[in-house]
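This part of the workshop introduces the protein records we will be handling. A record pairs a protein's sequence with a compact description of its fold. As an example, a complete record with its sequence and its structure tokens follows.

_____
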Amino acid sequence: MSSADSTTARVSATPRGTSGRLAKGAGMAGVAALVLAGAFGLLGPRTSTVEASGGGYDLTVEHASITRAGQPAPMHVRIESADGFAGPVQVSVCEGLFDHFDFQNWYPNPSAETASPGLVLYEFDPPSGSVLDVSLDARTAPGQLGGREACRIAVLKDDEPAVSVAFTTWVLP
């Protein structure tokens, strides 16, 4: 076999230059950082809590802040009113949230559900006390390739937001 037909004829026998060694080192450091982040649980599911007060209500939302496809992503909404609730409690949720999650059920179930552009509106029967706790059983939808979803949840009074919170959920690939 002649050297002209060899698949290694054009390969240089000299060692890599400084830039090649630096690129290899940077690549190895990146892989090591990912492995360490995973080992310490920094890439796994996380929840966060956001709170706000206004219009006679205290609103607390615990939500998935980091999740992955197929992972549980529960949400808990707590609405407190010092004066109690005189009638149904209206809650608006950003419609985009439903693009990334498979919702199983609300606990308690809303008594009514409607939509307006960009929002899903829920109405809950008033609780007997001064606190309404609503839990959402949800899972990150399968096949999510990653991304970020910003959302706002509000308690409505006379069809206008009395208090609202904003949050972001990161879906990792």
In short: Residues 38 and 85 are 45 Å apart (CA to CA). The first strand starts at residue 46 and ends at 54.
